[in-house]
Amino acid sequence: MTEPNDANVSSFRRLAIKTLRVFRPPLLMQLIYATVFVLMGTILAIWIISNHLSEGFGAELATRYGVEATIAHQMFMDSLRFAFLRVGGGAVLLAIAVSALLLSNILKPLREMTTLIERITSGDFSARINISNMPPRCEIRMLGAAQNKMAEKLEGLETLRRQMVSNLAHDLLTPLTNLRGYLEGLRDGVIEVTDDVFSMLEGEIRRLVRLVEDLHQLAIVDASKVKISFEKIDVEQLVRDASTIFAPEFNRKHLHLKINVEADAKTVKADREKLLRIIRNLVQNAIRYSEDSTAIKIISRKAGRHLELACENMGSEIPSSDIPYIFDRFYRAKTPERESDGGAGLGLAIVKELAEAHGGTVGARSRDGMTAIWIRLPDMPQSGK
Q1: CB 269 within 8 A of CB 229
Q2: Coil vs helix vs strand at 175
Q3: Whether residue 275 has pLDDT greater than 70
């Protein structure tokens, strides 16, 4: 015996793959195979019957009964038509049986999907269809998987909506309650008029203003995602312009701003106002969670074919489990400092959406007491933006 060579093994492998594909075809191929099977069976049966009849039917009639050839031919054709009717009728019945079997398997999961969609429409986003018993490459399985993914996304959005309403209610109610209590106390003479009281009231008002401003900026982002006007921008000058507004916060916490712009990352093509908003949100976020008497670094550098603009600060770390979600709307990391900071969880969401509107991406890391959040913008604007 000869040993199998690599070519034979490769041919066998290809044949095995093709065989598996035949036995687990997509839905369209299942219907095609069923139709071809029935038709080929019909043609084969007719062919066999025709050959069998044509070989001796005419000769038998002529020799045994002295029938003329034309009459024998006509009798043969009549018999053939009868055979066609019988075989054709059987083929139709077989096709109906095969189609009914296939369609029942097809319609069953579709009916389940219809029921689940009705549940989702009524607000039950936990509905899922079982796709484990469906062939891997079947279109029905793909449809079921897409529906499950949609339901999962809707369930997440519903959870986020409820959390958002709860957070907004809390974020609005807390400062308003404080303002009401202190104003009533001042009116009734229970609380003395001091600088500390006015500072506290001013802080609560700033908290409300920041929340409303974030909501307003989010509305602006949603309304103007595709309205990007690209121009050449000096990165260092833009960072200084964006940071000037935070001078009181820098002084209050004794923070230092360090700007490091590498030689090949001094300019970028972007929308000035939107990039200004990105930098302000990054700096504001860094100020909020920085330790006193530390430095906030703004770094501009090349990252492949992109320009990376990063904001680094020392202070409260973001848990690794929260990193994938910090750019989601209304999400706040589960730490005491970040849950009680009074923010609505919109600053970084706005950063992400504005960066993506430029054709860029965002990212973050937090370890060893240092948190870095960055955006990456393409060197040139994408076409159509």
Answers
A1: no
A2: helix
A3: yes
Q: How far apart are CA 332 and CA 339, in angstroms?
A: 6
For every residue of 270-288, DSSP letters joined together read E-HHHHHHHHHHHHHHHHH
Q: Which domains does the chain have, with CATH numbers?
A: 6-122 (no CATH), 227-378 (3.30.565.10)
Burial class (CB in 10 A: 0-12, 13-18, 19+), 15: exposed
Quick one: which of 85, 79, 91, 70 has its CA closest to 50? 79
- Triad 122, 125, 131: Cα angle to 5°: 115
Mean pLDDT of all residues belonging to the chain: 78
Q: How far apart are alpha carbons 197 and 299 in whole angstroms? A: 39
Burial class of residue 136 (count of CB atoms within 10 Å of its CB; 0-12, 13-18, 19+): exposed
Cα–Cα distance between 264 and 280 in angstroms, integer?
23
Q: Name every residue whose Cβ is closer than 8 Å to that of residue 294 and which is 6 or more positions away in sequence.
A: 255, 256, 313, 314, 315
pLDDT (mean) for 108-129: 83
Q: How many Cβ atoms are within 10 Å of 52's Cβ, its own excluded?
A: 11
The closest of 342, 345, 318, 343 to 329, measured between CA atoms, is 345
Give whole-number Cα distances, 269 to 5, 176, 199, 318, 379, in Å: 59, 42, 41, 31, 7
pTM of this structure: 0.56
CA distance 216 to 241: 21
